[in-house]
Protein 1
Amino acid sequence: MTAASIDALPSPATFRAPGAGLSGTVAVPGDKSISHRALMFSALAVGRSRVEGLLEGEDVLSTAAALRAMGAKIERDEAGVWRIDGVGVGGLLQPETALDMGNSGTSTRLLMGLLASHDLTATFIGDASLSKRPMGRVTEPLSLMGAEFTTAPGGRLPLTMRGAVPAVPIEYRLPVASAQVKSAVLLAGLNTPGITRVIEPEATRDHSERMLAGFGAELSVERDADGARVISIRGEAELRPQHIVVPGDPSSAAFPIVAALIVPGSDITITGVGMNETRTGLIKLLQAMGARIELLNARDAGGEPVADIRVRASTLNAVENDPPEVPSMVDEFPIAFIAAALAKGRSVFRGLEELRVKESDRIAVMAAGLRQIGAIVEETPDGLIIEGTGGEPLEGGGPVATHLDHRIAMSFAVAGLVSYHGVTIDDMRPVATSFPGFVGLLEALQQK
Ligand code: S3P
């Protein structure tokens, strides 16, 4: 069976302990954050860009469909390379129908920013999960720039935006540590006269800054007296087309990494994973727990650091996370909780309020699922306290409810590999948003 056909298996699905350790060398799909940005910036460049290794997950395909609906030409050739003919900064056209963002918060928030300084009106719609997520964090700064919004109650989707031309440049201090909000303001700044500035007290992923500079935007990053990052972009930019090679997504690699750590006897290698230090918090946390993780063959790919990761089964000890490090592993807490559930001792996770507004409330949903499969967990307002088994398998059970959240589904699939009775997951379909081939990859690691 191919990876795609395995992923198409009907839900619910049960994941069980393999008879032996995981082994082999695998690659994970392209980075989701970088893939969205590669399409968006290419669509605004003058001329043809090429993107290799693009994540072909539903979230990124939502971005591609929206950009096409506004005039960009986006095609995939037989070799899997994507070709994007951009329309130039400010050149996107009025879409004829609502832009369907599916499950993707990144598509929604970054495109809202991009369109906020365009002369058009756009309506954004999404699935039940996305329609619950807060958009006020983006509509607030974009309103200051002159865009106008009508939203569903609570500032949520469906939402209609009227862009401002010319938009007004602002200096905006981020009230939440969010790369999506930072990027939305910077993208609005691309077609705004003058300098738009974002002040970021806690560093978040910097893919927008790196890639915009690569496309030729005039962008600078400085530190202010308090150590906050100050990012300035000069508007009315002209972007030059690029050839981008997307690294493997560290947030997807997180699942096989933890699987290999907790399944006894495992020794695996994951090749070509992005190692941008704004994304490597999980690896540091796992190493602090005693994980045997080696970074090999460190290199640079298209302006981003990349390495191969060798992971061997390890005896893990409990850990307490460092709240300032949360942005560097913000998507990895669900799988970190699984590692903690198998570690020796009591792990304490704090400062995770943002997890409550991800694709699901990841604190509540993980606490419920972990209890269902036999873990001892206490939920706090901003985190979880987990009493680990010390390596003893979890009881198992389910079906665990994933609430349209891909990372919940994949985290519990990994938990099933170290359980007495297997873990059943109610719905595996959300996995296709970020990690097509996930089930096939887990199976490949189990083949001797
Ligand atoms: C992302 C930023 C993060 C992350 C999301 C992708 C991005 O969201 O959770 O999966 O590509 O900028 P926040 O900005 O809401 O923290």
Protein 2
Amino acid sequence: MKTPNMINAKNRHSNQIKYTKYNIDLGNFGKGKKFFVRTYGCQMNEHDSEKIKGMLTSVGFEYTDDINDADVIILNTCAIRENAHDKVFGFLGVLKHMKQSKNIIVGICGCMAQEEVVINEILNKYKQVDFVCGTHNLDNILSILKEQIDTKKRQIEVLSYEGDVVENVPVLRDSIYSAWVDIIYGCDKFCTYCIVPYTRGMQRSRYHEDIVNEVKELVKKGYKEVTLLGQNVNAYGKDIYEDYTLANLLSDVADTGIERLRFVTSHPWDFTDEMVDVIAKRDNIMPYIHLPLQSGSNKILKLMNRRYTKEEYLKLYHQIREKVKDSSITTDIIVGFPGETEEDFEETLDVVNECKFDGAFTFAYSPRENTPAARMKDSIPEEVKMDRLHRLNEVVNKYSNEANQKLLNKTVKCLVTGISEKDEDKVCGYTENMKLVNIAGDKSLIGKIVNVKIIEAKSFSLDGEYIK
Ligand code: SAH
Ligand code: SF4
Ligand code: F3S
């Protein structure tokens, strides 16, 4: 048994990072068995689930969407806020019942697996969990699962170190048109509220040749869109190269001819002029940037250790808007950080009013075990947090609606990704600006980039019709 340790998880030793290739051959031990994966959290976790699916199918397991049909159930968890935890622990209750009537194996992966408190709780209270595999050793999940099956003993293997960079991990992608591609793992920013630097380890970039080759393969397979992933993609390369940055990588990946290139998430601190220029210049780099603000108060930004001021954020924001034609910019905002006064909150509203974001993910601050902010004084009462969140959402929704209204009667290009969730007779897709459109058109459009005329604009989606 190897369990996590949050103090070790803070350490950074770049000389310990190993670049390796996936090298696990365990035959066909999954043959005849089915598995199900439920994913919580961010896009990196979604992509990790695709790797879990790839590794399990490589030894004969079959993926099923129906949990009742599965022999192995894996929860790929998120630790970013308390409600992410609650969902997982709640679901473990459901699985406990399932286990009473059926012989199933339950596994926990992802960021919650890296938390000391969670593992202690699982050890003491959640006997229904058969194995735990951390984020740093995800590539070893098959050995852990096999050991559990062979010995029937609970397996816990979580490492608290910087993590390796493992290439060639088998991956079973959810889409055949749009693909996630990791470019940088971990995070070294240590924003004081955030658990990610502890659960995902040190910032470590993949080699650019490996990334470009992966995208070339995807282009060959007919993929239309690639999204480069990292907790902070703008820091790409800093850990391994002297003079190769995200700007170089974007340019090299754009050269592969992929029709749509996206990247997420950008930290304003690492955003350079060269990066803005390359996004502006290259037609296949989509004019959509997610640029988390977190707060509009310099006092709170400092307490958050965000490394930029409101003025610096606004300068970058306007620079992007000016240079990148028809860009859309979305953001993340936290309300109720310790010490946030009504005036601080109003400064956040001021920035939102100035930026008129295309959209924003808004959150009530949630203290995370062992992070510096969890030890800060002046915590904000829950009802004040909720009131601010509500007021913020009203302003945010007004601007996303306005941004959508601007598209009314315009013809835009959409990558059609599937059947509309709202209406089975329609398909849906995303504009270059990453806006969701429900499209009157038939299923044969799925997987294509087509022209769509916008006929109705709402706060969170658009309605359109296919134009030949
Ligand atoms: N790497 C990204 C953020 C990943 S987490 C970045 O730096 O922008 C996604 C969002 O969750 C963050 O942008 C932040 O707004 C929110 N978040 C992170 N920790 C939080 C916490 N403890 N409480 C509330 N929201 C949090
Ligand atoms: Fe968390 Fe900050 Fe890193 Fe984003 S940049 S993952 S918010 S520590
Ligand atoms: Fe959650 Fe981990 Fe992603 S905490 S947001 S799954 S990096």
